[in-house]
Amino acid sequence: MRAVVQDRYGGPEVLRVEDVPVPSPAAGQVLVRVAATALNLSDWECLTGSPLYARIGGLRAPARPTLGSDIAGVVESVGEGVTRFRPGDRVFGDNLALKGGFAELALAPESALAPLPQGLGFVEASTIPQAGAIALQGMARVRPGARVLINGAGGGSGTFAIQLAKQRGAHVTAVDHASKLDHMRSLGADEVIDYEREDFTRGQPNDLVLDLFAHRSVFAYRRSVTRGGTYRCVGGSVGTLLRVLTAGSVLGLATGRSLGVLVVKEGPEHFLPLADLVTAGDVRVHVDRTFTLDEVPEALAHVGAGRALGKVVVTP
Questions:
Q1: Which domain of life is it from (predicted)?
Q2: Residue 108 pLDDT > 90, yes or no?
């Protein structure tokens, strides 16, 4: 089978397409013929090995030679003990543990997969697992009338989060690159901010801030939320995350705010509610571009540059 592989950390130039052996599913595993794999910022981080947490399990060289975790496709075969799926089933899920989605076939734990809902296509389904889980958990406590700010709102998680917050009756401020402002408005954002022109932490405080690209000081984040409000970041530099976890927690307690890192729970139960909203037409999926296996380096460069509007998908 064809797969995109890497044997060292670096930019898109370290990737190559090779013919590799077809893997056999072990006990509890499912072999999926991949129809679509959505890219996440985590794929770019694992390609480059930065931030440092992207090297967990492979400090000097990638632990997994083939990236791609958000997969959708058809079950090819199953390993011993698999009871929920059989060959021919349409499935999707976040295969973060094994990755391998930038290939014609990928192994995944049975527990990571869910049946594809009726009426949901492979491309759309692949955009949901990781980004959907982040958006659902990030917006879980939004109440009607709350002021919500989403930094990085033009990407996959952010576009879902805008729509979820609006469904809950919130006033939403969306922050991203200028090229994404109109699209964020179209999803329901009440206010939009171009991060190159304005520092959102110096504007009106919010009841909830979901920060998908944390890189400021904990004092800036403190002033971005109201007293009694919540700031949660997902991703960012190791230094920023550590400061939010340590100094941020103390500063938050001292000033009546909750500052912390959103620890995202994985698994079908955490993304299927969003899939239901998509199939019902209550949440829109926006696919920026689709790429082939041979174009994976270009796709990753596009995501790494931060210019993807919504999701980018590879279709083997």
A1: Bacteria
A2: yes
Domains in the chain (CATH in brackets) are 2-127+285-314 (3.90.180.10), 131-261 (3.40.50.720)
Sequence-distant (≥ 6) Cβ neighbours of residue 43 within 8 angstroms: 67, 68, 69, 300, 303
Q: Which amino acid is at 166?
A: K
| DSSP-derived secondary structure letter, 117 | P
Tell how strand 206-211 and strand 287-291 pair up.
Answer: unpaired
Q: Give the C-alpha separation, 107 to 31, whole Å.
A: 5
The fraction of the chain above a pLDDT of 70, given in percent, is 100
The model carries a pTM of: 0.96
- Closest of 276, 268, 270, 289 to residue 120, by C-alpha: 276
- Which pLDDT tens digit goes with each residue over 169-220? 999 999 999 999 999 999 999 999 999 999 999 999 999 999 999 989 999 9
Per-residue confidence (pLDDT) for residue 52, from 0 to 100: 86
Distance CA 120, CA 247 (A): 44
By C-alpha distance, which of 78, 3, 71, 79 is closest to 34?
A: 71
> What CA–CA distance (Å, rounded) separates 47 from 27?
28
Q: Identify the sign of the CA torsion 153, 200, 247, 137.
A: negative
